[in-house]
Structure formats: C-alpha cells, structure tokens
Design brief:
This protein has 2 helices and 9 strands.
Length: 130
C-alpha cells in the first residue's frame, strides 16, 4: 500500500478496503445471476484475505463476521466481509452495514474487500490444494 496506515489499519479514520453497499449488492447479484450456484465457480477454492480487512472489521466491536460472495466488474470472484452483532431476542447475527452512507466509489459502508481468489493467489504447496 502506498498510503500510511495506523496499527489498526486506518488512514486518518477512513477504512482502507471498504466498498460501498451499492457495489457489494451489484457484485452479490452478479454472482447469483451469472452462475446460480457456487459449484459452477469450481476453479476458485479459497480467498486470500488481507490482514487489514480483518483488523478493520474486528475493530468495529463485532460479535461475528459474515462473508458474502460476489463477482466484481472485471469478472473476478470476491469475498465481501461484514461485521455482525448478535441480537439475543431473535438469535440472529445482524449485519453491521451503515446502509446509505457509501453510495458511490470511495464511500464507506463497512463492507470490506480486497480479497483475491485462489487460484491465482494460492499456496501451491498447501495440503488443502487438491
């Protein structure tokens, strides 16, 4: 990264790898619409997730993290990470998305993505690669 970050992975209070909700929705819809099921994306068997994405979502005070699958504008499979809070009344982990804040590129909605699909970002020596 060319920008200076803090130990918490922030650039002057702004998340590094967050994407707008509208972008995340478009990617998720493209994933579902394009293939219809995960098995058709058989060439992707993992995602490389940068440490900064994990640090930023954990810094939100989450109870858990949820990952959504999408396809970006270049046709690359992406894993979009959002923090969740447990609602004891419903028993559901609710996504912590600041809906409507990031409606354009560069805006934040607390949806993190800088993941890379594996392959090509794989460890060829991993015993999980078959």
């Amino acid at each position: 990264m060319s920008q200076k970050t803090t130990s918490e992975g922030k650039i002057k209070g702004k998340s590094i790898n967050s994407i707008p909700l509208k972008t995340a929705q478009k990617w998720a819809k493209r994933w579902t619409k394009r293939e219809g099921n995960y098995n058709k994306h058989h060439h992707v068997n993992a995602f490389l997730i940068p440490k900064v994405d994990l640090l930023e979502v954990l810094a939100e005070g989450v109870d858990a993290v949820r990952a959504y699958i999408g396809v970006n504008d270049e046709g690359v499979e992406k894993l979009m990470i959002v923090g969740t809070k447990f609602n004891p009344e419903t028993g559901i982990y609710v996504d912590m998305i600041t809906v409507g804040v990031g409606n354009s590129a560069g805006s934040e909605d607390n949806i993190y993505d800088f993941t890379e699909p594996c392959p090509p970002a794989s460890d060829p020596e991993s015993p999980l690669n078959s």
